[in-house]
Amino acid sequence: RLKPINALSFGAGMNARGAMEILIATIGLSLGILSQDLFSMIVIMAMVTSLMAPPMLRWVVKRIPPDQDEERRLKQEEILSNSPIQSLNRVLLPVRIDPEGISSRIVEAGFLNLLGSQHKLNVQLMNIQNRASEKQKGLDYLNKISPLFNVDKIQTKTVIGDNPAEIILAETKAGYDLLVLGAPRDPNRLGVGLFNPIIDSVVRQSPCATLVVSKGTVNWQWSPKRILVPVNGNAPSRNAAQFAFQLADKETVVIILNVLEERRQGFRGIFANPFRVSAIERVQHEIVEEIATMGEIFETKTESVVISARAYDREVLRFAETEDIDLIMIGTEIRSGSNRLFLGSRVENIVHEAVCPVAVLNINESAI
């Protein structure tokens, strides 16, 4: 049974007689079935009801409350309208030939397969070779790993050149929404560079959003079902949370974590005041709950956690290990003052020391 306001909208729309009634009345008059007076009444009624229908429908439609699905869709559109990652369609994934074969691409494949279950992805696999004689070798490798990616469309290409960073950056200008880079875990780079010179350079200059996946220990069936997103309320962490919500399927749980670092011995300022400490804790809880509510709008299972700890990065690593986290999603922004990619010592520690894969989402808004 329709609600009264819905029934009224149907009545307002169907009440308009329009040209069809005038046509029928004209035929009736020509056949002598209708008198001139009755014909005039029918024409006037058709004109009046047709003119009344638009304002009546506008008045009624404004008062029809949206159902839950429509309300959720409108809220999703409102959130994504202000998001730099609102559109996820074209994805660029540069890969190098790895001696380990297809096993080294499990993380990227699992990541994009989950994302592809929620979006129609057009993935471009690209391999870069120094010599033209090795072009076929690159294409053979791309064709070998292509079956790992269960997405809407996948394309392969091999480019010849001796400057991978410039080639990748030139390709990103072709209208890609996301650049995905797989980074092998290298503890020896701690304090030297976040990933490697090529990836660091590309992330700093990319005109589109970049997602660097630092690989951990995974098996063949790896697919992130428990995603940890450390947040502090700033724009990069919110972008990471929104990306995780778009990535998640019905079986995925996104855990929103805020780590409030405890007061250190001799630390002065606002943290010396217990009342202000309590206020800060309350604000952090509100931030986590707000982002978790955003996840509910995307119909994603969410958990919100606020923890006090001595060291931010140590606590994130401990939480990820004890809570069986499959993926850590970190939102970052470019830090100036260095010719290498620097996202902060805490992010670098998490990337290099986490047991599970770590995805670093960076949006260089100045480049965009």
Notes on the protein architecture:
With 368 residues, the protein is of the alpha/beta class. α1 runs antiparallel to α3, α7 packs parallel to α8 (197-205) and α11 runs parallel beside α12. 44% of the residues lie in helices and 18% in strands. The chain starts with a helix and ends in a 6-residue tail after the last strand. The protein has helices at 4-14, 18-30, 36-61, 68-81, 106-116, 135-145, 164-172, 197-205, 235-247, 274-297, 312-322, 345-353; strands spanning 90-94, 122-129, 153-160, 178-183, 209-214, 226-230, 253-261, 301-309, 327-332, 358-362. The radius of gyration is 29 Å and the shape is extended. It has a ten-stranded mixed beta sheet, sandwiched between helices. The longest helix is centred in the first third of the chain and has 26 residues, at 36-61. It contains twelve helices and ten strands. The chain has two domains: 4-61; 80-362, Rossmann fold, CATH 3.40.50.12370.
Summarize the structure.
The protein is of the alpha/beta class and 368 residues long. 44% of the residues lie in helices and 18% in strands. The protein is built from twelve helices and ten strands.
